Amino acid sequence: MPQLRLAMNQIDSTVGDLSGNAESIVRWTRHAAEQGAHLVAFPEMALTGFPLEDLALRSSFVDASRAALDALAGRLADEGFGELPVVVGYIDRSEVRLRYGQPVGAPQNAAAVLHRGEAVLRLAKHHLQNYGVFDEVRYFVPGDTLPVVRVRGVDVVLAICEDLWQDGGRVPAARAAGAGLLLSINGSPYEVGKHDDRLEVVRKRAQEADCTLAYLTMTGGQDELVFDGDSIVVSAQGEVITRARQFEEGCVLVDLELPAASEEPPAGAPDDGLVVDHRTISAEPLPPYEVQVADGYAARLGGDEEMYTALVVGLRGYVAKNGFRSVLIGLSGGIDSALVAAIACDAVGAANVHGVAMPSPYSSEHSVADAAELAQLTGLNFRTVPIAPMFDAYMGALGLTGLAEENLQSRLRGTVLMALSNQEGHIVLAPGNKSELAVGYSTLYGDSVGAYAPIKDVYKTSVFALARWRNRAALERGHTPPIPENSISKPPSAELRPGQVDTDSLPDYPVLDRILSLYVDSGQGCDAIMAAGYEAELVTRVLRMVDAAEYKRRQYPPGTKVSPTVFGKDRRLPISNRWRESA
């Protein structure tokens, strides 16, 4: 059987940075060539960054992407890699009208095979994603070809992401065309537990295509999304041949023995109306060589470690890709700000993390002490700015009481943080978690201020679990645990009035989070949640809090998605809405 050394480069591209992404592609191609690769692949839209959102609708950007692809093909040839076929994702446009009401030249999520200084084969994604965080039907028209490239005597069918996740299309067509390898380039974002779903899909599609399947995806953070790598190669029987590390850039090299292509190239329309588009790059198989490359199976991260790593990568990507260097956090001594501070230190380094304690007349001594201990344990920069003088001035002028008095403290802290941000150039991190955002337990223009919210998609129970894991991991590595034990063990409190604790206003977090998960993540209604064992009065109360807080969530900063349903792109509800779930 012919042999093929495949190099899958799971890289971190930056949206809109065509020159920087091209430079990365050249650098990783050089590395693959030095390792003796015969076919090199990069993820979905590696040249443009992903996802593009409405940038895809700018014709000037599509033009720039096409020009950058041509320039990249020439650059690879000039660098001495012209004989090495390279598969690259980018944005292109259709040359024909593919959808009624959409003009010729509509954008396409595309890929190309670069060889000898030009794009010898182009394709567009056939199945478009139109669920969750993706609106591809809004932006793109689908491709209608079955792209096949013959490399070293093996017919390789190319696909893009959703072409694997949906039934039909290029997977059964690959089988009908007698493919030796199905190569899918992807931009599949992380969420908890997805790596198991991903492996199941890849195994199933390999068996359906009756050929080896290589699934390549990207890594790094892009706004709310984080990509976890986890590229996979499986045999036609669904057995894992190799699996890449999570959350790390790298080149996965794998030697494959694959069926020889038939003498006559595939042709016609083998499935779903797809027309074969075949190119031969190298028809003859290589002489047999000793297999030397086997990257093996990288172990999966554990549940808490995996989520924590995703949060670190997401924050690091947001800071770096937006040109920032340092972050600012209000430190209350509580669990949320402590976890955010630990994530920030791991993401950008403690020297670039600035913490501010802002005690009020109602702050406990242990809260200030816990904030100071956090700074000592992590090595972050720390200062104290009491808000009592400001609070007294406002109270003297306005005479506020009750909730208005409580929220004034939070808003004063938000003002202090934004003033320091403007003065010193740090970006503010909002510490709110998913439980609080769900029920509106936050103050607009107070604890909600910030440019990024690292734990906005993390329920409170998971906040505690992540903090405990981070401290355990530090001990196992011989390091100092970063989060004070008192921040983990004491009852959560906003400390806006004497003796206040969160359970004055909310159910216990384990109960609250289970109800929220059913309602927010699973889309269950009141009756279904009560059937799961929860009292009607409690369920109705929690759901009404969630529904009434939509206007607050719309104004909250972006943050890393780790669950199936993040507030924002995954869950879009009207603010002005009188429908309420009830028993």
Q: Major beta sheet, specifics?
A: 7 strands, mixed
Low-confidence segments, given as residue ranges, are none
Percent range for β-strand residues: 15-25%
Radius of gyration: 26 Å
* Helix residue percentage: 25-40%
> Order of strands in the sheet with the most strands?
13-12-9-8-7-6-15
Q: What does this molecule look like?
A:
The chain is an alpha/beta fold. It has helices spanning 18-34, 59-81, 136-139, 162-165, 170-176, 194-209, 303-321, 335-348, 365-378, 388-398, 402-424, 434-439, 460-476, 485-489, 509-521, 526-531, 536-548, 550-554; strands at 3-10, 39-41, 86-93, 107-115, 118-124, 145-151, 154-160, 181-185, 212-216, 219-222, 225-228, 232-234, 240-243, 250-257, 275-280, 327-330, 353-357, 381-384, 427-428. Strands 13-12-9-8-7-6-15 form a seven-stranded mixed β-sheet. Strands 5-4-3-2-1-14 form a six-stranded mixed β-sheet. Helix 7 crosses helix 13 (460-476).
Spell out the blueprint of helices and strands.
Blueprint: E1 3-10, H1 18-34, E2 39-41, H2 59-81, E3 86-93, E4 107-115, E5 118-124, H3 136-139, E6 145-151, E7 154-160, H4 162-165, H5 170-176, E8 181-185, H6 194-209, E9 212-216, E10 219-222, E11 225-228, E12 232-234, E13 240-243, E14 250-257, E15 275-280, H7 303-321, E16 327-330, H8 335-348, E17 353-357, H9 365-378, E18 381-384, H10 388-398, H11 402-424, E19 427-428, H12 434-439, H13 460-476, H14 485-489, H15 509-521, H16 526-531, H17 536-548, H18 550-554
Parallel strand pairs: 1-2, 2-3, 6-15, 7-8, 8-9, 16-17, 16-19, 17-18
Antiparallel strand pairs: 1-14, 3-4, 4-5, 6-7, 9-12, 10-11, 12-13
